[in-house]
Amino acid sequence: MMDLDIDLLRSFAAIADTRSFTAAGTRIGATQSAVSVRLKKLEERIGRTLLERTPRSVMLTPFGETFLADARRILAAHDDALRRALVGEPAITLSVGISEHAGGLSLAPALAELRRLVPNLQLRIFLGLSDDLLAAFQNGRHDAVVIRRNTGPTDGRVLYRDDLCWFAAPSLGWRPGEPVPLVTLESPCNARMAAIGALEGAGLAYLEAFLSRGVAAIQAATSAGLGIACLGARHRPDGTSRLGEEHGLPPLPLSEVVLHHRLKDKAAAFALDRLGDVLSAASPSPLTP
């Protein structure tokens, strides 16, 4: 008897969502090669081609489009059964620290999905700076944290890549060669450190045009033309343009958002894994395989 393996279906759905084998692997915690092998096994098992791959794109075949809907129904039923088996009736209480740089606008849909999947969850969310949250997690004050990481330890589950970018409004009136008017969070902040490190490394002068402790305030100040912000790509302020080396600004380091937890309780770990899934799904999808 032939069965449809859940891991194969989940890998296929992740590829379809991200249009990228690398991003799909990041989402489900597997390597790019493992995702490729799983897709090949699934195609061999059903005897049909699901994806068309070129060096620059990943596209669903007509059959793949139809099969994707079936795969999602199977995965939804599986996850619902697993949720009911693991979660049961007792309430689960979790303390989760989330960096504003990591949550952003995707936090609301992530929490809504988490409530749907785990209705008996009692969640305490703490917003803060990545380094502070990580220290609190390491000291046992949080069950889990979702933070931005530019450099440092390589442990944790990478949810998505969110490279730092320079943003400014057309009304700013800044010209290359002038001191860079930084709009930034107060120290300590990884994005702030990355921006200042890049400017100093390139020998560029800068001034602190606007300081705040909230990402929303940084976005508002940048949209208002008060200066240039260093933010993750998914936090681009309204009405701003992305600046780069062609504007006289140095490149910024790679950045990724990571989930850390050490939970052994299966129901709690399930809840956090689903939170990570939703945050990952809300991230921008690469266009290359």
Summarize the structure in words:
This protein is 43% helix and 23% strand. The protein is an alpha/beta fold. α1 crosses α2 (21-28). It is globular.
Q: What is the gist of this entry?
A:
With 289 residues, the protein is an alpha/beta fold. It has ten helices and twelve strands.
Topology record:
Blueprint: H1 6-18, H2 21-28, H3 32-46, E1 51-54, E2 57-60, H4 62-87, E3 92-99, H5 100-103, H6 107-117, E4 121-128, H7 130-138, E5 144-149, E6 157-161, E7 164-168, E8 180-185, H8 190-201, E9 206-212, H9 215-223, E10 228-232, E11 241-243, E12 256-261, H10 266-281
Low-confidence runs (pLDDT<50, min 5 residues)?
284-289
Q: How are strands sequenced across the largest beta sheet?
A: 4-3-5-12-6
* Rg computed from alpha carbons, rounded to a whole number of angstroms: 21 Å
- Mean pLDDT metric: 82
Q: From N to C, what is the helix and strand string? A: HHHEEHEHHEHEEEEHEHEEEH
Strand content: 15-25%
Helix residue percentage: 40-55%
Number of alpha- plus pi-helical segments: 10
Termini separation: 33 Å
- Could you say which overall geometry the principal axes of the C-alpha atoms support? globular
Which sheet architecture does the biggest sheet show? 5 strands, mixed
Q: Which structural class do you get from the secondary structure elements?
A: alpha/beta
Q: What's the β-strand tally?
A: 12
